[in-house]
């Protein structure tokens, strides 16, 4: 990998480490320290995710308009200000308001970093986005581990540590990103009126991405159940929190350690990104059908191992497709769409899963989730038909058909 991508990977690790300080502790803090109900805590987290969706879209558009460097710097400042105000103001009003600020600032950062990853190593293809995906998971592992240590000393220190890590990210970006983050996106801008007109009129790549993202949304709705309904389900079955945390430890370890194995499979037997997504979706389906029979820890562990293999195929493939579909000067916007769809899945997934689980039970929920991947197969199969239609029209107009 080129040096700029390595710097981006390090930046992503620091970014997600900072964000992960709060992810596992939000609900606990609001319920135990601030005395709020689980329903209110869930509403705050939904607002946080909603702000992230908006941040994803705005961050992507800002990448295309003002460049990666300025977008990333602005997003870091928003998170720093929110984190430090939160560190010294612990009332529920401040907490709820500043969680929106943190969600918005963090949301702006992700599409800018992903779009920049595609630009600094265009010949790398899926490897660029796979590296960013692994970096995110390393950040989650480091952040949640550090959060547990800091929280054992004092909950209040969590917010201060969160802000300090973002300050570290700001200094890192200011000292390392300026050269490549400023120069690279210039080549991606439209250069004349004709190109600008094409970028505005050509909606087919956008339609293709939106079709693909319907399936991506389904994947995230299913995936986030592991953090919501499945976590409660394991408790009801007598599986303690320590064992449940082992599932996520295995998930993170596999994502980092199994990359050579996945890379070998992709290089040897997976010729295209579409096939890569197909393989991931099939593996996802198997994981949820295994869950229908899971009543002991070992079965949940097997399901998590299968799930992790599936996500290693699907998660890096979608932003890679978005990068390939994006017209000149629209890379940030397209990555913003992908990130906002993922955030939307995390936002609505717990509610959808909770309603189905309450009404029909967990086994039915797992069957429904497994069956929903059929629709994801359909959207994956047809998303590029829009592009084929465009090519056919072009050939016909030239008398080539």
TrEMBL record:
<dbReference type="InterPro" id="IPR036259">
    <property type="entry name" value="MFS_trans_sf"/>
</dbReference>
<dbReference type="Pfam" id="PF07690">
    <property type="entry name" value="MFS_1"/>
</dbReference>
<dbReference type="GO" id="GO:0022857">
    <property type="term" value="F:transmembrane transporter activity"/>
</dbReference>
<dbReference type="InterPro" id="IPR020846">
    <property type="entry name" value="MFS_dom"/>
</dbReference>
<feature type="domain" description="Major facilitator superfamily (MFS) profile">
    <location>
        <begin position="4"/>
        <end position="388"/>
    </location>
</feature>
<keyword id="KW-0812">Transmembrane</keyword>
<dbReference type="InterPro" id="IPR050171">
    <property type="entry name" value="MFS_Transporters"/>
</dbReference>
<dbReference type="GO" id="GO:0005886">
    <property type="term" value="C:plasma membrane"/>
</dbReference>
<keyword id="KW-0813">Transport</keyword>
<keyword id="KW-1133">Transmembrane helix</keyword>
<keyword id="KW-1003">Cell membrane</keyword>
<dbReference type="InterPro" id="IPR011701">
    <property type="entry name" value="MFS"/>
</dbReference>
<protein>
    <submittedName>
        <fullName>Multidrug MFS transporter</fullName>
    </submittedName>
</protein>
<keyword id="KW-0472">Membrane</keyword>
